[in-house]
Amino acid sequence: MKISLNWLRDWVDTGDDVPALAHALTMAGLEIEGIAAAGPSLPGVVVGEVKSVTKHPDAEKLNVCVVSTGAEDFQIVCGAPNVRVGMKAPLATIGAKLPNGTEIKRAKLRGVESFGMLCSARELGINEEASGLYDLPADLKPGQDLVGALGLDDTIFEVNLTPNRGDAMSVQGVAREVAATRGKPLHPPAIEPVVATITDTFPVRIETAKRADAPVGCYKFVGRVIRGIRPNVPSPFWMQERLRRAGLRPISAVVDITNYVMLELGAPMHAYDLAKLASGINVRFAKPNEKLKLLDGREIELTPDVLVIADERSILGLAGVMGGEDSGIADGTVDVFFECAFFDPNDVAGRGRRYGLITDASQRFERGVDPELQERAIERATQLLLASAGGNAGPLVVTRATRAFPTPAPIRLRHSRVEHVLGAKIDASIVQSLLERLGMVVSGSAGQWQVTPPTWRFDVRIEEDLIEEVARLHGFENIPEAAEIGAHEPSPWTETHIRNERASDLLVDRGYQEAINYAFTDQAYQAALCPEPAVALSNAISAELAVMRVSLWPGLLAALGSNQRRQQPRVRLFEVGRRYSKDAETEVIAGVATGSVLPEQWGAEARKVDFFDIKADVEALIGLTGAAEEFRFVAESHPALHPGQSARIYRGERPVGWLGAVHPEHSKRLDLTYPVFVFELETAAGLAAVIPEFEEISRYPAIRRDIAAIVDEGLPVEAVRAVVQQSAGNLLKRLTVLSVYQGQQLQKGKKSIALGLQLQDTSRTLTDNEADALVAQVVEQLGRQLNATLRDQ
């Protein structure tokens, strides 16, 4: 949420130290993520008044203007289509330098001299409007410095609110926090009831179920008819500027005012074109298969748990989310029906996201809007509209549901409990004062209070909530550190468990960086990579994060793509986390690698990472178990992996992971520049270690024998290794694959695998005859089990 510091100062004394204010709000729980200027400094840019406009003698699209600063007139050549006599526009005088780097100099355009430049809003860096000159308010004085005239010496706070603090999603809400943290009084704008000048009203009915346990949806609906406004009138310039600084685009007086009141007071409003409404409004839950055409042009099908606003003919809007297209304000609207309602947060939450809608209104209603605010919001909007567009206001009409919204119940607060939880001594009078600053009603004797939260604080319900409020206003930095006192129970730890930190350190040593991704992801993207069923979220953050991940690959590949788009050609990422299936969740360690094997350097030739490089990384991981011989890499296919470059990892007969190159179709879909390789390994089964056992070191020399076996080209090397190890027995201490050869010297369909055997006994020296006999036994078993022959025969 963006908030203007000057707007905030209308409500409370903020002081002049902006960084200190930002720090105080952040420490109070309203994190200030960014501080930015409302506009650039514009030295040499002043308010100019156009005195005359004549056509350029040699250019059809150019005009020659005389522009006054009050003290001096300037001849300006201008091509803007909206220039006119009497308009006020920004004038960049000679020597001025614009934010885009343009330096204003004396110039001659098609033979006519120009002594400055009239500017658009984009050229000034104020907004993106570039269709014409920035049309300034007529009451500005020519010659005024533009920054001072427009109040651009303002500061914009980017406020990041936690989901429970819906009360702070407005200028009023942030002002309350400033007042509470600084101990300053609030001075809100005067909002006096508007005296009705017509008797027109519009009927409203709130339809609720008779069952006591049925949801009500809407507890209060406040409305007012305003007739005879000037159609398509723009909102005042000062209001447009405040909306712009809050990140909203001005549209028209009626729409801008509803947005302004929402930003100022925190009460979402809606304005209907009264001529488009039929009979009366009914607030109810949707009927099966009902449809609504939204303001963005989409048509959605509703379900019975969705609260809607309807009239006799059709549905007018999705309550608390977005209005419908058929009843919106248009250029010719002259009669308006203002609406401001209180919806139960439980009956609004998640409804917008279900249809891919996250609006300013839904964000506020989901968190809870003050149920006592609606009348003030309508009065404020009426004041602003009558001042901007004229018209006649009818009486304020409040319609309530048959059941009232539950009022906040008093909460017991004990002084002893406050000090116990916070671990600090805080005087009882200070505790009471801090709570009263927040608008809470505190009664009872010191040490035993009954505290009633204000209607706008939906997040304060139990004693611990009150203690949290005391802590943040007292200042977390003012709570002294204290050593923890409590029983320490050591967690069980065995040598058969490899810590995730150890596995992570190994990958970091091999050039990887750790990534942390959401545990939920995009359904369509994940289904393409891993088609197994995923657990859908009932209240997803967005449509792109709608299901739980069944693999860590989608998140890692998305992070890889993000890095490549930022010119990072060599990327290695890993993540330790859980994947989720319909039946269980499994912790895995996964990685992704692309680019060159080594960073760019002079000491080694550049080479792209391949399948065997990432296989080596996985082998290093499983080497931590001390049982690398239990693992096998078996060629199998996976939808996410390249055919012929994928392998499933087995430990014994149990599959524990995958390894391979990402399928080219997925690389193309993600715009990945280089071949990408991934792995995923279960931590429980894949990183379970064997208990180390003592083994005597032989004092006798080893014997080395090399053989080259010719086998079918489709036979995995792992199968050859298994036969050799089985037939050689305990005397085989090390088995090394020396080479794999396919070529003209071999029969088609065959390959040669060269193996190095190191033979050794712990009790005696082996003889050559014994070694030869053992090798002959190995060769015999290779021939019998794999139909292998020796290459030199």
Polypeptide structure, described:
With 793 residues, the protein is an alpha+beta fold. The chain has six domains: 2-38 and 155-182, Phenylalanyl-tRNA Synthetase, Chain B, domain 1 (2-Layer Sandwich), CATH 3.30.56.10; 45-150, Nucleic acid-binding proteins (OB fold (Dihydrolipoamide Acetyltransferase, E2P), Beta Barrel), CATH 2.40.50.140; 204-400, Phenylalanyl-trna Synthetase, Chain B, domain 3 (Phenylalanyl-tRNA Synthetase, Chain B, domain 3, 3-Layer(bba) Sandwich), CATH 3.50.40.10; 411-477, Phenylalanyl-tRNA Synthetase, Chain B, domain 1, CATH 3.30.56; 500-686, BirA Bifunctional Protein, domain 2 (2-Layer Sandwich); 703-790, Alpha-Beta Plaits (2-Layer Sandwich), CATH 3.30.70. It contains 20 helices and 38 strands. The strands form ten sheets. It has a seven-stranded mixed beta sheet with strand order 26-29-30-34-33-32-31, sandwiched between helices. Helix 5 crosses helix 6, helix 6 (253-265) packs antiparallel against helix 9 (374-389) and helix 10 packs across helix 12 (463-474). It is globular, with a radius of gyration of 37 Å. The chain starts with a strand and ends with a strand. The model has no long low-confidence stretch (mean pLDDT 89).
